[in-house]
Amino acid sequence: MLTGNRILLIVTGGIAAYKTLELIRRLKERNAAVRCVLTRAGAQFVTPLSLAAISGDAVYDDLFSLTAEAEMGHIELSRDADLLVVAPATADILAKMAAGIADDLATTVLLATDKPVLVAPAMNVRMWEHPATRANIETLAARGVMRAGPGVGDMACGEFGEGRMAEPDEILGAIEAFFRGEGAAVTPSGGAPGQKRPLAGRRALVTSGPTHEAIDPVRYIANRSSGKQGHAIARALAGMGADTTLVSGPTGLADPPGMTVVHVESACDMLDACTQALPVDIAVCAAAVSDWRAADEAAQKIKKNGGGPPRLELTENPDILLTLARADNMRPGLLVGFAAETEKVIAHAKAKRKKKGVDWILANDVSPGTGTFGGDRNVIHLIDDSGVEDWPAMSKDGVARRLAERIADHIAAKS
Ligand code: CTP
Predict the structure, then answer these.
(1) Stated pTM of the model
(2) Is residue 210 in contact with ligand 1, taking CB distance under 6 Å?
């Protein structure tokens, strides 16, 4: 019940505005007081009359309306609520909020408020993934603006991807979680408070980043992996409620909150950390583990001695994914690997899946031109028993969410 809780709902111009009517209905069912501000663009999608009828209150839509100012000024409107909810929140209003622009009633209220704000973004996947929107979302998150969604799915524009407004139930869940005092739990990509937690009670292990294989105390063998994809997967699984252990090689990334993070340097250390984390229900090996290490790590820095470069003898590293696949009764319930390829992506990935005995392989092309290594986007082909599923180009966060959702569906179907 939300009896006595006052919500100012700002409706901006997105096709998802029709879902906001359902959200208001659910809020009213729970006895919340809902008052609406409708932007000019929002009024193209829902009418002031329908909002007024469902909310049972006046609808405010004009910054310079003298009668509205006389009844309730925009400052008062911004303060006379316990929570401000922007749903749908377009790329435009998020940009204005981040920049502090106040050029209509909705943005003026948002700039003038001293109350917590929750946004439910809704936009085309490309707009959602644009660096400008990413930066605005991060700015708003750093200021404590809470977020519900967006989700992944088919869009009104005919594309598929991340950017769909969260369902009314999810936004309602986030609002209820806020009033229970859990509002600060929102993370930039891990999930909103109140989001469904289908992996609650499950244990997950994720490897991420490169490994560093020491040649001597100052030199090492490494690769170009940034760890962005593995870290995003760990965040998505933890966001869905999994008790997550992230085993990370050296990256420049901050430790994601809400999980156990084990830092390792070499492939051998990574294998140790992974076996210690068993048993798990889900393991996702996203690390770009170095295939070789120096056969003999020099105890002291190798010096130039005028006799030409030293010969570097290599030995093969243990294969962590393969070791997990063969862990008998400790084998993870669902084992997911990546295949980083530069040619014949699908054929090599299928062969890798068989050879390593894993359940799903996420194949990606890591040729220099693709920008996959170190970049923010990824094109995935998921290979399982039933064949190959081609995913559209997505942000690494989008890939992580889609994978986590697929894992949750798989586990639900099995149990
Ligand atoms: N992997 C691992 N341990 C290793 C090497 C790879 O756990 N020593 C995992 C990776 O995390 C990834 C999968 O195996 O999930 C495939 O890694 P990839 O680098 O694509 O292939 P390799 O197994 O190294 O084979 P190749 O170098 O011949 O392509």
Answers:
(1) 0.62
(2) no
Atom 12 of ligand 1, nearest CA residue: 338
Q: Ligand 1 in contact with 291 (CB < 6 A)?
A: yes
Is 217 within a domain?
Answer: yes
Same domain, 164 and 278: no
Residue 275 has pLDDT above 90, yes or no: yes
| 396-414 helix and 228-239 helix, angle to the nearest 10 degrees | 40
Judge if the beta carbon of residue 287 lies within 6 A of ligand 1: yes
Q: Is 157 a catalytic residue?
A: yes
Pairwise CA distance, residues 148 & 248, whole Å: 28
Write out pLDDT tens, residues 26-67.
Answer: 999 999 999 999 999 999 999 999 999 999 998 998 766 655
Domain interval for residue 340: 203-414
Task: Check if the beta carbon of residue 168 is closer than 8 Å to that of residue 19.
Answer: yes
Whether the Cβ atoms of residue 289 and residue 268 lie closer than 8 Å to each other? no
Considering the domain architecture, whether residues 213 and 244 belong to the same structural domain is answered as: yes
Centroid of ligand 1 to alpha carbon of 381 (angstroms) = 16
Residue 319 CB less than 6 A away from ligand 1: yes
364-387 per-position pLDDT tens digit:
998 888 877 777 788 899 999 999
